[in-house]
Amino acid sequence: MQHNIFPRMRSLKMMEGCKGPHGFSFNPSGSGEKFLQHLQDHLRVNSIRSKSVRNFQPNNDANSSVLDEALAIYGLPQINLIEPQIEPNLKFVNLVESFADVYRKIEECPQSGKSGMYVEQCAIFRGLSDPKLFRKSLKSARQHAVDVHSKVVMSTWLRFERREDELIGISAMDCCGRIMECPKASLVSGYNPESINDPCMCNRSPKEDEDVEMLMEDEECSTSMSHEEVDEDDFDLSFFIGDDEIRCSRFKIASLSGPLRTMLYGSFMESRRQTINFSQNGISSKGMRAAEAFSRTKSVDSFDPDIVLELLTLANKFCCDEMKSACDKFLASLVHDLESAMLLIEYGLEETAYLLVAACLQVILRELPSSIHNLNVMKIFCSTEARERLSLAGHASFLLYYFLSQVAMEEDMKSNTTVMLLERLGECASENWQKQLAFHQLGCVMLERNEYKDAQKWFETALEVGHVYSLVGFARAKYKRGHKYKAYKLMNSLISDHTPSGWMYQERSLYCSGKEKMMDLNTATELDPALSYPYKCRAVSMVEEADKIGAAIAEINKIIGFKASPDCLELRAWFSISLHDYAGALRDVRALLTLDPHYMMFHGQLQGDHLVELLSCHVQQWSQADCWMQLYDRWSSVDDIGSLAVVHHMLANDPGKSLLRFRQSLLLLRLNCQKAAMRSLRMARNHAASEHERLIYEGWVLYDTGYRGEAIAKAEESISIQRSFEAFFLKAYVLSETSQYTESSFYVIALLEEALRCPSDGLRKGQALSNLASIYVDVDKLDNAVDCYMNALNIKHTRAHQGLARVYHLKNQRKAAYDEMSKLIEKAKNNASAYEKRSEYCDREMAKSDLSMATQLDPLRTYPYRYRAAVLMDDRKEAEAIAELTKALAFKPDLQLLHLRAAFHDSMGDYTCTLRDCEAALCLDPNHVDTLELYHRTKERAIEQQQT
């Protein structure tokens, strides 16, 4: 029975003022709990039933009634319950200016301060959509770090960003040969720019390690001699501890520190005695004998750890810096795992042993995120007293708490641990940007915890130190406390006082209704089309006000077409269910679970996998062979969401199939979901059936995180074990991205030809043929390229149309190129790039039309803005050209956009704006040759202009 349940859902106006984890309405009454129990029972029975029947026939009546009941209880989302989250990162009214400012700081600051400047850059990049920018900046911060503490934190953070804790068989202390993540290298102080290309210290021989340590620490040669080699006449002083006598050299003991020298040679009575009672100084006779031995040998390596701990205490008491340093270094070398770290860090903190605490911190931090759930671990960091202890040992820093608080927020934004770490972050903040970040994030966390008064206080504090975006949080907290009109006035003032941004209008729309609300939402989309809330809000409004579910789906499709996110996919699934389009709903739920495997449906009440089971009862069941056919169809039609759903289905039947995980990662990368893609790659690596396959996936992980040389090494190692398509393809792909030389291109061609000789499926062979063809084009072998593209098309690699069009264009067959791209547009479901590329093969008016369509389908593509700006510049419409680029830069900080706008400013003689845009572009890529050339040329002109 598939009766229309939508009116029934809309009539249920439950839960005024209640909000679930995903912002949808939720009924907390017993009926929801009873339904969930009923649903679990239904799913359990249905799961058994489906496994026992090979040719499954949908039981529409029973399953539809359960689904109808679910929607009747929970209802569709409501506008007032899908509020956008306040972004918990630094956000600027003028992002370009902030880029330029931090670039200038980095360039102008002394070497000793560059690492800190790069950390500030990290904080700015953290709020951007591209995680590679953050990782690159963090790598630069680590490269320029001088002190051990900073090296330990940043090395660990670099490793954490790749989430190597998820890789089976990789220990927390492994660095896989990367010196900037090497635990040994992190414990060596000093700046050494050449070291980033050196072999990892973990792979050096003991002799090399010894040489490096002597070089880095400038250690003097040991004058070690045994007790027996010392002349008895040298022992002119005895220390008594109880009944034990320890004979020593007065001179050597005095040389350990100033206080001991004063005691033994100064005006104290001990200077005139041959025997000194040392029983009350907290050291055993064994410890004192060790101190005597150290006074001669300057080494503690032969002592037991408990004796070294005694020496450390003695060294602290009598300010024996050399002995403390030796003890510190020795004890640090004993820290290898969490157990030893937790034991020794207490001694280190008590005795303020810098290197020992650093070694312990390193192990603890490298166990993140799991160690953040260990109460004993968190006691070391969370309280004010704990921070003060770390500070005395030289290890309480903004950097440390920034890292810890980010991990805590990812794990559980509402936890007490997160709050305490952010409070410590605020205590460590000294610079303005640090205070802005700490206080703003505290406001975000308090808002999530529904502690609105505290949230308002922290947002206001962040606002006072200059973080304008915190006014959004301040207004939201006011609104939550019942002051809607005050919130509206705050956003009005923000829009009046600054250049308007999309997020300003989005926020103001929360505090108004009707046409005014829609106007603000439309303006928000116009200024920043990447904001998802306006699309969601308009879609829900269409359903609430006019039952226009089809129009609502069309609205949400606009953003899903270029920015896939779990919340938007869930919303479309809800709409599809209400139309009884269960196949469409199942596709979206499977896709969103690929993006976020732990996503909870029905307002956080039901696991997504359970909803998949429920929806599966309404659609035709596929065998694995059917799934492969479906995947081919969707892949060839460039339907990435549909392809993700099919792969998710296939993995449910064969979860250990690493090949499918790899396919999943490729799709996610195409959708610009980099974190999810990396997770899939890690799972592919963990499920690899053989050593050579595991190496391939490790190579892709390395490539995607910027380690291209290491990626090639993994591919070569895999080939040495077994020649395979994927190993040759990986090596060819990385080399083609790394080198632009003709000789290298011919080598890449040979590698791809080797790959094509190895067994693989059509999906991958189509990609290899297309890549091979593009290399042929680069070396001017156009006929070979045509053959490759045609072969790729024969196995349904639809994207080959684009490459073939390029070849026709190079052969001056422009009409054929245009027609080829038209074929791609007809076949491809997501075809913004096809419209963009086709624009190159037609006249100006048709190009403008195609580029307008490309922007409409995917406003994040930057080429259309650059083209339109260039056309305007050609027509001498300079202001309009600048405005076109500025419009895109407001929501897409892009290197090419910035460079082009800088060039436009330069042609207009506006050197100030030229320098600003160049600096902003160089902040994104400090090695961009064209921008560097323009920047230096403009600086010279600006100086000349000032002198005249």
* Percentage of residues in helical conformation: 55-70%
Q: List segments where confidence is low: pLDDT < 50 over at least 5 consecutive residues.
A: 1-32, 47-58, 215-228
Mean pLDDT: 87
Strand content: under 5%
Instruction: Describe the sheet with the most strands.
Output: 3 strands, mixed
- What is the distance, rounded to the nearest whole angstrom, between the alpha carbons of the first and last residues? 86 Å
Number of strands: 4
Structural category is mainly alpha
Shape: globular
Provide a count of the helices. 51
Strand order of the largest sheet: 2-1-3
Q: What value does the Rg take, in angstroms?
A: 33 Å
Characterization of this structure:
There is one protein chain. By secondary structure, the protein is mainly α. The protein is built from 51 helices and four strands. A three-stranded mixed beta sheet has the order 2-1-3.
